[in-house]
């Protein structure tokens, strides 16, 4: 049991006026912990704390080197708690424990450390000649108080994607975790204190929709950074637009893994395709759930891919040999099952999965599923599913593969598999998506920008571009 009563504001836990949120395991419904829900008044107190730290605290005059050191110290504090944090995230999200160490914690550390390495050389101030004579001093100044709203599927990783660049820019933060997975994020308070980050620079408020709405609407928040569904992102974007508020939105995806006809069908390919769609039980916004394969080699690729998915061990996420755990809750499970049934009604063929796994009557488990004979116009190929379900779609040539990959309202990530890296790179460059990996399922590089085209979002996280999204350019004409 982990209990966090109140909210973390100005460097301490203080009482809130809202009710208690119970956090339960998606594996068996066991009560894991409780957090307190922050009301609008509580959010106001957190924002005022962040504003005070921004305007009058030591963070206001911090140097890039000092901020880089603070980010590194925070990463060190998190790393010293890797096992505990991985255990907690695995329990509250359902991530397989052996995957959680890398997919939840190592990625979090990678983001913090990559950002800290970029800060010392980032150009926060520059002189340039004026076209009117003289010089212009261009300052990159913090955007201000940041409201960071993170999802449940990778709570620490998505927190790092917001917290690291905001700290690097000199901003202060009010962080709101998902009510489905607030425990590991709440534990960061200990890391923040151990890292010596001044009180009020990072504040944590838990809660559901009402808490998030209060944070988004607060006039003292200068920027909202949100990761979550496209539907919620539209509402947040509209609210920010009404007040001309800065906003970064990292939203949904329906990413494609394109397998070209020269590929060697070996374990690297099959393992990469499986990882791309099934990691974290398929609950990743950048999951490569549409697998596009040459029609001439369809069965040659489908059969070993299906065999690998069929062999995955489903079960308790705490067990080290588990490869697929539960989805986040029963609502998600029922939605995924309904989507698979609808796909079959539209003409898709289930080649593995499609039913609840035997022997796992409690918990929100979904068998890893592969659907063949899928067309790109089917609902299952259009909508983000957020579960362990892959669809395999045939194409005839590279042009059709690119057209199918781009025929989506999303554009977050993707992959191209080929024996010819130059050919793969040419295909990748034609894909309308924020990142594309070559012969790898990795959706991002920690030192490079990550974000979406189209309805997958606005703005970028990661790399110098991620820091720039938390800065305002100011020109002083000398």
TrEMBL record:
Which region is the signal sequence?
Answer: none
The entry's active site is 250
Instruction: Note the superkingdom of the native organism.
Output: Bacteria
Against Pfam families, the record matches this protein to: Aldedh
Ranges of residues in domain Aldehyde dehydrogenase: 13-476
Q: Report the PROSITE patterns cross-referenced here.
A: ALDEHYDE_DEHYDR_GLU
Keywords of this entry: Oxidoreductase
> Which InterPro entries did the record assign?
Ald_DH/histidinol_DH, Ald_DH_C, Ald_DH_CS_GLU, Ald_DH_N, Aldehyde_DH_dom
Q: Spell out the family assignment given in the record's similarity comment.
A: Belongs to the aldehyde dehydrogenase family.
State what protein this is by name: Aldehyde dehydrogenase
Q: To which species is this protein native?
A: Gordonia hydrophobica
């Amino acid at each position: 049991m982990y209990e966090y009563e109140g909210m973390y504001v100005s460097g301490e836990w203080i009482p809130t006026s809202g009710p208690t949120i119970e956090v339960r395991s998606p594996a068996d419904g066991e009560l894991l912990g409780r957090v307190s829900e922050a009301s609008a008044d509580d959010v106001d107190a957190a924002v005022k704390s962040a504003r005070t730290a921004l305007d009058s605290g030591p963070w206001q005059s911090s140097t890039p080197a000092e901020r880089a050191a603070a980010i590194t110290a925070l990463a060190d504090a998190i790393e010293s708690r890797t096992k505990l944090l991985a255990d907690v995230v695995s329990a509250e999200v359902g991530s397989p424990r052996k995957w959680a160490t890398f997919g939840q914690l190592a990625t979090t550390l990678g983001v913090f450390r990559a950002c800290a390495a970029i800060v010392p050389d980032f150009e926060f101030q520059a002189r340039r000649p004026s076209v009117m004579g003289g010089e212009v001093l261009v300052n990159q100044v913090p955007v201000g108080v940041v409201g960071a709203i993170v999802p449940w599927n990778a709570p620490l990783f998505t927190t790092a994607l917001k917290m690291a660049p905001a700290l690097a820019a000199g901003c202060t933060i009010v962080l709101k975790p998902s009510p489905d997975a607030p425990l590991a994020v709440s534990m960061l308070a200990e890391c923040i204190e151990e890292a010596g980050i001044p009180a009020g620079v990072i504040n944590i408020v838990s809660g559901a929709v009402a808490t998030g709405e209060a944070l988004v609407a607060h006039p003292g928040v200068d920027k909202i950074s949100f990761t979550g569904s496209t539907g919620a992102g539209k509402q947040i974007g509209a609210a920010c637009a009404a007040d001309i508020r800065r906003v970064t939105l990292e939203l949904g995806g329906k990413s494609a893994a394109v397998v070209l006809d020269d590929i060697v069908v070996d374990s690297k390919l099959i393992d990469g395709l499986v990882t791309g769609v099934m990691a974290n039980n398929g609950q990743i916004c950048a999951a490569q759930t549409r697998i596009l394969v040459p029609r001439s080699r369809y069965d040659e690729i489908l059969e070993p891919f299906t065999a690998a998915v069929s062999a995955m061990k489903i079960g308790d996420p705490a067990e080290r040999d588990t490869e697929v755990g539960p989805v986040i809750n029963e609502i998600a499970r029922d939605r995924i099952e309904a989507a698979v049934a609808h796909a079959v009604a539209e003409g898709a063929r289930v080649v593995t999965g499609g039913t609840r796994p035997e022997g796992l009557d409690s918990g929100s488990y979904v068998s890893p599923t592969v659907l063949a004979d899928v067309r790109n116009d089917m609902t299952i190929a259009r909508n983000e599913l957020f579960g362990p379900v892959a669809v395999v779609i045939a194409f005839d040539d590279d042009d059709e593969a690119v057209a199918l990959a781009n025929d989506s309202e999303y554009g977050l990530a993707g992959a191209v598999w080929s024996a010819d890296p130059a050919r793969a790179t040419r295909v990748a460059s034609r894909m309308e998506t924020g990142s594309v990996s070559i012969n790898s399922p990795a959706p991002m590089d920690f030192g490079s920008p990550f974000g979406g085209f189209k309805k997958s979002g606005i703005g970028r996280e990661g790399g110098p571009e991620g820091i720039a999204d938390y800065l305002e350019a100011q020109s002083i004409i000398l």
